[in-house]
Design a protein that fits this description.
Responsible for the transport of glutamate from the cytosol into the mitochondrial matrix with the concomitant import of a proton (symport system). The chain is an all-alpha fold. The protein is about 70% helix and about 0% strand. A two-stranded antiparallel ribbon has the order 1-2.
């Protein structure tokens, strides 16, 4: 989730810019929970599209985003579209809070003495924020992906006369810790880092640039009007999501612990890239790209809305920098 960049919530005390951490953490958590609840079914479809591999005769379980929606709903019902949402909602607050607070923290400290923040420093702040969040993102995504992809794996197993036992995020986590220790929860860390760091490098400067182009709330204010921040968040989020979709495909495939019979196994980022390119072509790296753009756009639009409205500041009873 994003901080607003130019819509900073830092306050002025005795002429000194202060960094308010708690409101950023709360705003990040609120935006994350609302966003996940709204777009999770799309994220599930994205995961299944990215994980499916083309059969030897070109056969595919899902032919499109809409086809995946229909088949998932028909086989698993409404609540099946929310497989893995519990662990996502549970961990989304610390994950988004870390990213949000870290980006603002680094922007605050990388701002030059004359008050400017060059594009290279904006990119550095975003990249460092993306790096910080993977401590939560990696296990969250690992568990979420197992739950999201369980229906696809079960359906494929049923088609060949086999059954796959039902699992829960808790049972998966406990089994990984029992067999591989805490490091078992960090499978795919390299790919997660590639995706999240590159996404943040693209997103944060792009949002700040787009947001600076719109009308201001008041004469002389550096705060953009609501609709400008909302649309800037949506546009920057969707464009950054498409740009790093290849890394998201690699991460999703590496973190899928259970494969359908006959599907390729991957041994690291380079192996996954090589095999995917060889057997499925470059277009495979953009599987689920439209879904991901549709998921990310409202997530970041919601983030800007939460910031603009000053939800955390209202809850804490403190003055918002946007008011």
């Amino acid at each position: 989730m994003a901080s607003s960049g130019s819509n900073s919530k830092s306050s002025m005390v005795n002429g000194t810019k202060q960094f308010a951490l708690l409101p950023k953490i709360i705003n990040g958590g609120i935006a994350g929970i609302i966003g996940v609840s709204c777009v999770f079914p799309l994220d599930l479809v994205k995961t299944r599209l990215q994980n499916q591999q083309v059969g030897p005769n070109g056969e595919k379980m899902y032919n499109s985003m809409l086809d995946c929606f229909k088949k998932t709903y028909r086989a698993e019902g409404y609540f099946g579209m929310y497989r893995g949402s519990a662990v996502n909602i549970l961990l989304i607050t610390p994950e988004k809070a870390i990213k949000l607070a870290a980006n603002d923290f680094f922007r605050h400290h990388l701002t030059t003495s004359n008050g400017t923040l060059p594009i290279t420093r904006q990119m550095a702040a975003g990249g460092l924020a993306g790096l910080c969040q993977i401590v939560i993102t990696t296990p969250m995504e690992l568990l979420k992906i197992q739950m999201q992809d369980a229906g696809r794996v079960a359906a494929q197993a049923k088609a060949v006369g086999k059954t796959v036992p039902k699992v829960s995020a808790t049972s998966i986590a406990m089994e990984l810790i029992r067999t591989k220790g805490i490091t078992g929860l960090y499978k795919g860390t390299g790919a997660t880092m590639l995706r999240d760091v590159s996404f943040s490098i693209v997103y944060f400067p792009l949002f700040a640039t787009l947001n600076s182009l719109g009308p201001r709330r008041d004469d002389g204010s550096n705060e953009a009007v609501f609709w400008c921040s909302f649309l800037s968040g949506c546009a920057a989020g969707s464009m950054a999501a498409l740009a790093v979709n290849p890394f998201d495909v690699v991460k999703t495939r590496l973190q899928a612990l259970k494969k359908v019979e006959g599907e390729m196994q991957f041994n690291g980022v380079a192996d996954c890239i090589g095999k995917t390119l060889k057997y499925e072509g470059v277009t495979a790296f953009f599987k689920g790209g439209l879904c991901r753009m549709i998921v990310i756009a409202p997530l970041f639009g919601i983030a800007q809305m939460v910031y603009f409205l000053g939800v955390a500041e209202a809850l804490l009873g403190v003055k918002s920098g946007n008011k």
